[in-house]
Amino acid sequence: QVQFVESGGGLVQPGGSLRLSCAASGIIFRIYAGGWYRQAPGMQRELVARITTGGTTYYADSVKGRFTISRDNAKNTMYLQMDSLKPEDTAVYYCNTFPAGLVKRDYWGQGTQVTVSA
């Protein structure tokens, strides 16, 4: 059964850093492109960053230069290093394949809350 478990969120001050982890089970994650997504209150879920099977990365303009996506295929895990955090980064962060739902349609994990506030 496919499962994505996100962790690493929390409360951080502006300018701070967090590292999110995404543990995948039920799939061989390395054969899929992966993505980190986020959803702020009252907003639609949006793609933040994605990584191909070969390790090429792409970022939304709003996080470019501040966030770094990576993956450890041996651990079936994906990461999102977030630096220079801003209040507008506050959201629930989710991981999935890219595009989302490739393995299990309409499936999302529980996400991890990131709150950036002084």
Sum this structure up briefly.
The protein has no helices and ten strands.
Task: Write structural notes for this entry.
With 118 residues, the chain is mainly β. 0% of the residues lie in helices and 47% in strands. The chain is built from no helices and ten strands. It has strands at residues 3-7, 10-12, 18-25, 34-39, 46-51, 57-59, 67-72, 77-82, 91-97, 112-116. It has a six-stranded mixed sheet, with no helix packed on it. Strands 1-3-8-7 form a four-stranded antiparallel sheet, with no helix packed on it. A hairpin with a 4-residue loop joins strand 7 and strand 8.
Shape designation: globular
- Number of helices, counting only DSSP H or I runs of 4 residues or more: 0
Largest sheet report: 6 strands, mixed
> Which stretches are low in confidence, meaning pLDDT under 50 for 5 or more residues running?
none
Total DSSP E strands? 10
Give the arrangement of secondary structure elements.
Elements: E1 3-7, E2 10-12, E3 18-25, E4 34-39, E5 46-51, E6 57-59, E7 67-72, E8 77-82, E9 91-97, E10 112-116
Parallel strand pairs: 2-10
Antiparallel strand pairs: 1-3, 3-8, 4-5, 4-9, 5-6, 7-8, 9-10
Notable traits:
10 strands, mainly beta, 118 residues, single chain, four-stranded antiparallel beta sheet
